[in-house]
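Quick one: structure for this chain?
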Amino acid sequence: MTPLHAPGAVGFVDGVAVPVGEVDAREAQLRGGALACALPAAGTSAGRQLRRWLTQLIVTERVIAVEAAARGGCADNAPGEDELVPDITARLEMGSIAAAVLADPRARALFARITSDVDVSDAEIAAYHERNPLRFAGSQHDHHGWRTPATTVPPLAAVRATIADHLRGAARRRAFRIWLDQRRAALVQLAHGYEHPGDPRQPDNTHRH
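Got it. Here's what it folds into:
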């Protein structure tokens, strides 16, 4: 891909410049909000990483907009956000950026379309139940009336549907994340200083092996 350049741009999405002012505005919004005291100081290594994260969020939102427009832009009947990422574990599976863009109904509509044919097999369900026999066993009451963890393994038939939903949801989140990574790789170019926070080539990346 031929490098693109524009003064004051943090990068490009599908050839369209993303002005640094968008990152400035998003950062100012965060620093003026309730979580301001938890944010790293501006100008520090961690502060620059925050700006890189915001850049990733902004360009990913633009990727979603481009892809939605290419498919007609319809977000009618998009699934609810809680349906796709029901808990913190699901958000961690997807990664913070992919999970964050699902606030946009267009992203959720894309998720539903892209992952509509993702499913799990009976063998995968049975293997999961064998590895995690009490995962979906209901709690029980002791002789004092207190609820205690289950100790009796439920038969596979009793929890098959629940396990299938659990595995299917995880598989679909993984498929969407992979698709989104591929589309970002194809559509996004980032300017120097606004690389991905985890890019080992940028000096503020503190993750080391």
